[in-house]
Amino acid sequence: MARFTGIYNADGTLLGEIAYVAKKIAGRGSCALCDITHGWTGRKKTFDSTCNAAGIEWELLHRDEATPEQLAVAGTLPAVIAERNGTWELVLGPSDLDACDGDPAALVARLFG
Predict the structure, then answer these.
(1) Tens of pLDDT along 18-34?
(2) Which residues contact 80 (CB under 8 A, 6 or more apart)?
């Protein structure tokens, strides 16, 4: 089973969530990873089912929940990173996630493509 860590370009606090939603509604910001994993009513069932079918386990973190080491490897957020042989490495960056256009299947294809 493959294991990845996704880091959202948003904070996990209540204020962070409110600020993110306000920016998204105003068209002043978004997070491509959020668009892949969540819709307006919560976590996408298609995200979970697609990843389960592909044998992917996720740790999904807000930027304020990630470690300094994870953030350093991720660089510009959002990002997908993986720990291999005790070292974090960047797997997908913002442009890769943007190209998925909110589609969990496109994310899986990029991870294994």
Answers:
(1) 666 666 666 676 789 99
(2) 4, 5, 6, 7, 33, 90, 91, 92, 96, 97, 111
